[in-house]
Design brief:
2 copies of one chain form a homodimer.
Chain A (H helix, E strand, L loop, with lengths): L4 E6 L3 H12 L1 H8 L3 E7 L15 E3 L2 H6 L5 E4 L6 H12 L4 E3 L2 H18 L3 E2 L10 H8 L5 E7 L2 H13 L3 H10 L8 H4 L2 H15 L9 E2 L7 H10 L1 E12 L2 E12 L11 E8 L3 E8 L3 H16 L26 E11 L4 H11 L4 E6 L3 H4 L14 E8 L2 E2 H14 L7 E6 L2
Chain lengths: ~450, ~450
């Protein structure tokens, strides 16, 4: 048996406390798996006195995580504080500079400073691991970096935010509005008081940036990601999706094309028969399209103290076993800068929900605008006339305003630019009365 | 850049040829991922002259895989011949004895000699890797051994044989019999001329034995596995499953209980809403229940040259990167021998399809036998009387034989022994006219 691996944990929130408990609970199994004891010997946290249900007897306490990171009393530094900059960044850097491998769950840190920190870790010959930063307990980073190391990956996409998936699932099963489901998510602790980071798609974007880098061997480029949230999704969209054989999911999608790498986060129509469409509630799921393996899907808990601690523990075990693969699966300096593909050039099918003026020739005018941009329609759904289509809860049209009907169009593959231009023109023509809802379709 | 890793491949069938092509196609990416070139420098195969669409110029050819295994011209030995004994076993042993790490896709070899070979590899400090032996391209072994190394696993279950899943899926979607779907599977190359190994559940059992060992840290014990195949599944069973909210899948299930480890392979009723129930066609899927991560499911191709080569390549990449974790994730000599739990002691819900004599009191007699063994029923399904229930394709009852009705029972949790005894008694009572169909229910 080698000497114990002394772990220093910065941040004793939900994940930190779960990790400390896990390492204690599994101490015997971990020792037999790694050949050495794994022991938390030092921690830092904002509030020293708070009761976390942990026995911290004999564990050194540091007020400053930077001091913990540099301390001689630990062999591995585990950063669970969060935040792209500040103490998280400083202490991770300090740990690496003082020769300690680092494990972090901090997606914002990786999305912003991952390459710089990976370079530093490689220079020093140290592990820098962040399995828990994406999809919680789902070992997606190990899968990309090691399990699929013989593959050329074409596309990776997934449900990376449990809050959004909970809300969309709840909207579908209970027929409630976005706002009502968000409130329920907040009540259950799935959503923050300020939910923008989750429901706006930004959390998904951080994670996608990390996955894209691992999948394609490209430099992390979080700013290249086109981001849309789920706030505009309505029961009308869910009903139309259902009728057309789709479900709506907030997906992060990264795809390598001949022209570069496309990265986007937006509500997406996925066929009900796909593995990703089956994923309901707070779960996460990632599908990888690759040349050798074909399609591989991982489904599991994307958040929660224990699930995230499971991934942190796996990184610590790798370190205890002496595994030190480059953080991004190849030297950080070899990660390519690739051309960003602007969203305007995205190509795919589209779902469009329009309010169309209820008069002869209106649909023809829209179809003409579509035709001018070579957009061909796969299906058109219109139910009844204006009075029929208007729901009891809709306001009646204002005095003199035209009656309108709801129309749903599904297009064959076209470009984002073409669809946006055609819809802008239809609006300008006065045959469409409000900003259309546009949802991209992702095919298997 | 370190010196090249010279790979020797024994067996150039579908997987061997796919691997050789993969290593060539990905040579640049593999070099950047591992810091060294990975090159096939020697091969062995039964037929030297056969055209495999491979450029084997400059590659040494060995008639005897044992000679290849011992040769100084390679750094890693890849065994893709198959067979639990004979040349596969001999050559793997020879490679380890001559100081070479080994990669194999051979589940029969691992199920039979895995522990002995792992011990030898550990003594020599060599990697002995077999990711491709279970679930083809799905990185389930890495996930258990590394990704979930911080977890205590309660249960692992999955669809591990694509042939069976193809047949069951096809029976369900096309309404055809087992025999018809088997023929179609043979026509498509999914099933062998002698399909027993697949449809009888034996292939699944080999894979399950490996997974159980990795999941529970127990010695491989393939002979402890209770094995049933899918040959007895009928359209009646599928229709009843559908009505009751289930699908029928051939599952391998390994579960740690207070009394030991239960290992079983049999057709299983799974709720339609589960991830595993969604997996149709030749795909494989594995679900892991563990204390920290909760539930994790991996879905992907379980067979095929490219998908299997993807897993073999991942093992080779690990070796090229210098990763050498113990084959079973802890020292082989520490794998526990645990008590086998005989199938009679299995506890769970049951689906039972009976042919019951159509006379007053018959159902009461069955219910009494169930009650005597403390079996409580969740539901009873009987449709119409004898004439209604008999299908047009059923033979009419023989002269003087009683009319019967099909009855489907779902029990609450009970023991295998109780249900078997109750049904034997009902048969002896003469109220049940033929051997009942019994299918276990697996709950999430």
């Amino acid at each position: 048996m080698s000497k114990p691996l002394r772990v220093g944990v910065a941040g004793l929130g939900v994940v930190g406390a779960s990790l400390a408990r896990l390492l204690q609970r599994q101490s015997e199994a971990l020792a037999s798996r790694t050949g050495r004891a794994i022991v938390v010997t030092a921690v830092s946290a904002r509030d020293r006195a708070r009761d976390r249900g942990l026995d911290l007897n004999g564990v050194a306490f540091f007020d400053d995580p930077r001091a913990l990171a540099g301390s001689e009393s630990i062999d591995v530094f585990v950063e669970l504080m969060g935040g792209a900059d500040g103490p998280a960044y400083d202490s991770v850097k300090a740990a690496l500079n003082s020769g300690k491998p680092v494990v972090t769950a901090n997606k914002a840190l990786i999305a912003k400073h991952g390459l710089e920190l990976a370079r530093l870790a490689e220079e020093k010959g140290l592990a820098f691991a962040f399995e828990s930063s994406v999809a919680g307990g789902v070992p997606i980073i190990k899968t990309l970096r090691e399990g699929l190391a013989g593959n050329s990956i074409r596309r990776i996409y997934g449900i990376l935010n449990g809050t959004c998936n909970y809300i969309l699932s709840k909207m579908e099963t209970d027929g409630l509005s976005f706002e009502e489901c968000l409130k329920e998510a907040q009540r259950l602790g799935y959503a923050e008081a300020d939910p923008t980071f989750d429901v706006g798609g930004f959390d998904t974007a951080h994670k996608l940036a990390i996955l894209a880098s691992l999948a394609f061997g490209t430099a992390i480029d979080a700013e290249a990601i086109h981001v849309e949230g789920i706030e505009t999704i309505t029961q009308d969209d869910l009903a139309a999706a259902d009728e057309l054989g789709f479900r709506i999911k907030l997906l992060g999608v990264a795809e390598r094309t001949a022209r570069g790498v496309e990265q986007r986060v937006h509500p997406t129509m996925v066929a009900k028969s796909t593995a990703i469409a089956q994923v309901m509630g707070v779960l996460n799921a990632v599908t990888i399209d690759a040349d050798a393996v074909g399609e591989l899907t991982l489904v599991g808990p994307g958040a929660g103290g224990d699930a995230t601690a499971s991934a942190v523990a796996a990184d610590i075990v790798d370190i205890a076993r002496g595994v030190a693969i480059q953080p991004f699966g190849r030297p950080a300096h070899m990660l390519e800068e690739v051309e960003r593909i602007p969203m305007q050039r995205h190509e795919g099918g589209y779902y469009v929900r329009l309010m169309v003026v209820d008069r002869p020739g209106a649909m023809a005018a829209i179809a003409t605008r579509m035709g001018e941009r070579k957009i061909s329609l796969e299906s058109i759904m219109q139910k009844g006339g204006a009075r029929l289509a208007r729901r009891r809860t809709d306001p009646p049209p204002a005095e003199g305003a035209p009656e309108t009907v709801r129309v749903v169009l599904i297009t064959h593959a076209t470009s984002e630019q073409a669809i946006r231009e055609a819809l802008d023109l239809a609006l300008a023509d006065g045959v469409v009365t409000q900003k259309p809802q546009v949802i991209r379709i992702e095919r298997e």
